[in-house]
Design brief:
551 residues, Rossmann fold, Zinc Finger, Delta Prime, domain 3, three-stranded mixed sheet, five-stranded parallel sheet, Helicase, Ruva Protein, domain 3, 4 domains, alpha/beta
Length: 551
């Protein structure tokens, strides 16, 4: 007897064998048991999740000699013929190759004839969205009022392409992608029956590659068994399929935590030399940091929202402790931006290398000494952008709380770095902060931009996009538009922030601290200072430029 591939051999033959579609199976069972059966069903969902298999099981349930029943006997003539694909009462039509109106006219003529063996004549049309509009319209009348002995079951991966008049005449069921854990469970059952012993890590790698399709997972398993039947390792899956190991994503994240750009670039080079599909690099990395973000939100969300093994979920949670939520959001935005850039560049290596350098690069080389000292002490530090930098040890919950307290206190009592004498103003005397309100700050804002421009033009230019939002307990909050996150990040550097605080303090004879935020609300724009006007005019004259749009 010829070999039967696993996807066919292990195709579900009854409702209880369909995995991951409990919501649909329950509804169909109740409909059969109560006798409330529609004349037309639409099964919609991704490939390989059980649409056609469920259609055949439904056909057997209706035509079984003991039926209609929710558990077909599998032994009667009708059940055997449907299982073997030779039933005269269950007609399977490929919508992709029978798209024309003539095919539907033939179907309309045949529905008049009674079933040969079973109780119903059942038409299963796969990829029904491929039918032409003329074919759909020809089917409308028959679909709305078919003979009592006829049932239609449509299957499609693209329900949005089906015309509304057809959709309104069908009972629709949306099939879901199958979770990795359920796929692993099914593959493990197959291996036990096939008397094969394979590490569950291999099965999980297969499930990840299958992307929610049980049929794809079974086909991949079939291929891998042929590749190495005696002993199958995770490296075999990676080698045959060209996918990325989960360990590579964890390794890269460690380099991001350590700010180790060189090691990250070496890892990328190794993946490229191994022939990995680099088009999937960012999607895999994006999913990994999404999982870290979910873990950061709360450990209780791991089991429900992260479709990984318990071991990987714990590793994800540990890595999440080294990032703030805002940092993770910034990383995800960086990944999405790079993904858009890659679409316009043929050489993927360059934008990927730039991405890794941005992801792992410490903005200020002066941090290197402080970071090395911190690692030796086993404590955490912050760089000049406020990004946490960490040692290689996962801190305990107690240590984390202690570190958070230290950082919180440092934000309030942080001393400015030593500056040149000319740039380091004398400390100001304490004043009654209640005499300063937000209106006074707004009135002095234009003067602040002007004064900053005399000392450091770049700081003045970035701050000009912001606006004083509120003043509470000597803390001034300056808001930027959501699209100006770069301005916020640059101004949060210690030297820039202190320069602004000191300059504003001189103008208002006050001692204010400043924080920066981004917002979606519309912000007023201060008028440009004369220095800015002069600077722009000089730049335009020098580079022979012109202004395309000016807010």
């Amino acid at each position: 007897m010829s070999y039967i591939v696993l996807a066919r051999k292990w195709r579900p033959q009854e409702f209880d064998e369909v995995i991951g579609q409990e919501h649909i199976i329950k509804t169909l069972k109740n409909s059969i048991a109560s006798g409330r059966l529609s004349h037309a069903f639409l099964f919609a969902g991704p490939r390989g999740v059980g649409k056609t298999s469920t259609a055949r099981i439904l056909a057997k349930s209706l035509n079984c000699q003991k039926g209609p029943t929710i558990k077909p006997c599998q032994n009667c003539v009708a059940c055997r013929e449907i299982t073997e694909g030779r039933s005269l009462d269950v007609i399977e039509i490929d919508g992709a190759s029978n798209t024309g109106i003539d095919n539907i006219r033939e179907l309309r003529e045949n529905v008049k004839f009674s079933p040969v063996v079973g109780r119903f004549k059942i038409y299963i049309i796969d990829e029904v969205h491929m039918l032409s509009d003329a074919a759909f319209n020809a089917l409308l009348k028959t679909l709305e009022e078919p003979p009592a002995h006829v049932k239609f079951i449509f299957a499609t991966t693209q329900p949005h392409k089906i015309i509304p008049t057809i959709l309104s005449r069908c009972q629709r069921f949306d099939f879901r992608r199958i979770s990795n854990l359920k796929i692993v469970e099914k593959l493990d059952k197959i291996l036990k029956d096939e008397k094969l012993n394979i590490d569950k890590r291999v099965l999980f790698a297969i499930a990840k590659a299958a992307d929610g399709s049980i049929r794809d997972a079974e086909s991949i398993l079939d291929q891998l068994i042929s590749f190495s039947k005696d002993k199958l390792e995770v490296s075999d899956v990676v080698s045959v399929l060209g996918i990325f190991q989960q360990e590579s994503l964890f390794e890269l994240t460690e380099y991001a935590i350590k700010k180790d750009s060189l090691s990250a670039l070496k890892l990328l080079d190794r993946l490229i030399n191994e022939g990995k599909d680099m088009g999937q690099f960012i999607p895999n990395l994006l999913e990994h940091f999404r999982n870290i973000l979910v873990a950061k939100v709360g450990r209780e969300s791991l089991r429900d929202l992260i479709d990984l093994t318990a071991e990987n979920q714990d590793a994800i949670y540990k890595q999440s402790q080294f990032f703030s939520v805002q940092e993770l959001l910034n990383i995800i935005n960086l990944l999405v931006s790079t993904q858009e850039t890659i679409k316009r560049i043929e050489n993927l290596r360059i934008p990927l290398e730039v991405l890794l350098i941005k992801l792992t690069h410490s903005p200020d080389s002066r941090n290197d000494g402080r970071l090395a000292e911190s690692v030796s002490r086993g404590k955490n530090t912050q760089d000049d952008l406020g990004h946490p930098q960490y040692n290689n040890t996962i801190p305990s919950s107690g240590a984390l709380k202690e570190t958070e307290t230290e950082i919180s206190e440092n934000k309030i009592t942080e001393e400015p770095e030593p500056k040149l004498e000319s740039e380091n103003p004398q400390p100001k005397q304490e004043i009654n902060l209640k005499t300063i309100d937000i209106n006074q700050v707004k009135e002095a804002w234009s003067d602040l931009i002007t004064e900053l421009g005399k000392v450091k033009m770049s700081t003045a230019t970035y701050l000009q996009e912001g606006w004083p939002l509120k003043l509470e307990n000597s803390l001034l909050t300056v808001a930027f538009d959501r699209n100006a996150s770069l301005h916020k990040e640059v101004l949060e550097r210690k030297d820039n922030r202190l320069l602004i605080e000191n300059t504003l303090g001189d103008l208002l004879d006050s001692n204010l601290r400043i924080s920066f935020v981004t917002t979606d609300i519309d912000l007023p724009k201060p008028q440009q200072s004369k220095e800015d006007e002069s600077f722009i005019k000089s730049a335009l004259d020098t580079f022979r430029g012109r202004i395309f749009r000016r807010d």
